[in-house]
Each structure stands twice: as C-alpha cells, then as structure tokens.
Design goal:
This protein has 268 residues and is an alpha/beta fold. 46% of the residues lie in helices and 15% in strands. It is globular, with a radius of gyration of 18 Å. The chain binds adenosine-5'-triphosphate (ATP) and magnesium ion (MG). The site of magnesium ion (MG) has 5 residues, from helix 1.
C-alpha cells in the first residue's frame, strides 16, 4: 500500500500547495509513482497544476465519492484520477465546499477519505494530501487518512501558534481514534533571500521538530514561474517559459525539494 503524507496547516497562504506540488514533483522525478490529492475545496493545487476548468466543471468529485449525498461510492475514487505530466492527481472541484459541510454531520465523515483510499485499485508509492487552511472534517480527514504529516509554515513567531493548535488537533484525533499520527517535519517556507531567520525562531522549530526535520525553502520567483507553467520546479522548462535566467534558481529549488523528498523516503 502507498505511503501517505498530509501537508497540513490551518493557516492560509503558508505554502501547503506549493510544498505538495514540489514534493510530489521530487518524488516523481526520483522514479516513484505518485498521487497528489487536493483536499482543499479552494482547489489551490488543482488550479496551480493547470486544471482550472476541471475545478469549475468536472461532474465527478470527492463530494460525489465521499459524501452520503453523492451518487458515487467510496470504491469509486479511482474514477477521479487525472494525469498531470509529472504525476497523477485527484483534483478539487467547487462542490467540495458542500463536502466539507456534509462531512460535519455524516457518520464516519472524518474517516471517509481514509476508507476510500483504502479501497483504491490503482497502486502508488506515495500519496500526498494537500489540506485546506482551516480545521474541519477535510483537514481531519487528511490527517486520519495519511497518519503522517508535514507542517508548512512561515518562519515567524505567528506560525508558532498555528503549529501549537494543529498539534493539539492531532493529539485529539490520536486519542479519539486510538491511532498514531507522525510528525515528519516542518517546512519553513518563503525564507527571505537576504535576511536570515532569527536564531530564536529557528531554535523554536528545532526544539519542536528536531533539527534534522526542519527544511528551509527560499522565497524565489522561480516558484511562481514554474506554477505559471503549471508544473513543479522539476517539470519546469525555463527556456520554454520565457525565463531562461531561471535555470540556476530552478536547480537550487530542485536540490531543496530533493532533500525533503529523501527525508520523506526515509521517514515513511
Ligand atoms: N518559496 C516560495 N517562493 C515564492 N513564492 C512562494 C513560495 N511558496 C509559496 N509561494 C507563493 O505564495 C502563495 C501561497 O502559497 P500556497 O498556495 O502554496 O499556500 P497555501 O498554504 O496552500 O495557501 P492556501 O491556504 O490558500 O491554500 C502562492 O501564490 C505561491 O506561489
Ligand atoms: Mg493551498
């Protein structure tokens, strides 16, 4: 069975989708068979990878598969898979906002993504789940399905509160469902290129996660450029995209995400 990893943080805009897109790209580039699931009704990952029309118009979605109100079964998850050039994805669809509402009240709603993934026919080495920026049945569902989690954060003090809250939520789920959810590490995202992170902030992350489990990703235009090319930095072609000067930055970013991918390979 595939190893699963949730990329979770209830704070918006900290780099969950960017981490998912590029970590999936790194794992696929290493030859793994990868699926990225967009569990955020806002569809950040889906739109970033170029499936804007799908997000608006697809007639099958996680809503139909996971909610009792939908006309598909948990067994039908394979039908939602679409192919991106680098790896497979289960895209989000606008109706997934209704899914979030439905799962609050449906029996077993929080565990429906897990039960559906358990029934999937298609075999993957890694399944990454991009989570929404709130605490609710979809983010709980991602944690319960994956049981491994990476915390993307900005390198500042405000993020520490969000991390504390998410760790509380994880402990609550562990107790309630009698399971373990492993913290694989933190991604300090959008580190300003010419400013270093304060020793205090970095020290806090090292204390909480362990020094070897903290990864720093610089704030670089190449990230935005690769997304406008609808790919991770691994599928990005700077010449073709019209940014030939991005080649070195792209290589740096690939190195960064390769380190994270190696860590995931080792930890899961
Ligand atoms: N390392 C980076 N360098 C430059 N830009 C970045 C970097 N990481 C993220 N961004 C940009 O920051 C924005 C937010 O990133 P992203 O969408 O991954 O966050 P998110 O946590 O998934 O947000 P949401 O909670 O809204 O889903 C995006 O526009 C993205 O392109
Ligand atoms: Mg996102």
């Amino acid at each position: 069975m595939a190893d699963r990893l949730a990329i979770a943080m209830q704070k918006g805009g900290v780099g969950k989708s960017i981490t998912t897109v590029n970590l999936a790209g790194a794992l696929a580039d290493k030859g793994h068979n990868v699926l990225a699931v967009d569990a955020d009704p806002q569809g950040g990952l889906t739109v970033k990878l170029g499936f804007k029309n799908h997000y608006r118009e697809a007639d099958k979605s996680l809503f139909e598969v996971l909610s009792d109100q939908g006309d598909m079964e948990l067994e039908d998850l394979d039908e939602l898979i679409i192919q991106h050039e680098e790896y497979d994805i289960i895209p989000a669809q606008l109706r997934n906002f209704n899914l979030e509402k439905a799962l609050y009240t449906e029996a077993g709603g929080h565990n429906s993504l897990k039960r559906s993934l358990d029934r999937m026919n298609h075999d993957y080495d890694y399944i990454l789940i991009d989570s929404p920026p709130n605490l609710g049945p979809l983010s709980d569902g991602a944690l319960l399905a994956a049981r491994n989690v990476v915390f993307p954060s900005h390198p500042n003090e405000i993020s520490q509160n969000s991390i504390w809250l998410l760790r509380q939520e994880i402990q609550t789920l562990e107790k309630k469902f009698d399971i373990d959810i492993s913290s694989i590490g933190a991604v300090l995202n959008e580190v300003p290129p010419n400013e270093s992170i304060s020793n205090e902030v970095r020290g806090w992350f090292f204390d909480v996660f362990g020094e070897s489990n903290v990864f720093e990703v610089a704030d670089r235009a190449v990230i935005e450029h690769s997304i406008s090319y609808n790919s991770s930095v691994f599928g990005y072609d700077p010449e073709d995209a019209g940014y030939p000067w991005d080649t070195n930055a792209m290589q740096d970013m690939c190195d960064t995400y390769n380190l994270l991918a190696q860590h995931v390979e080792k930890s899961l």
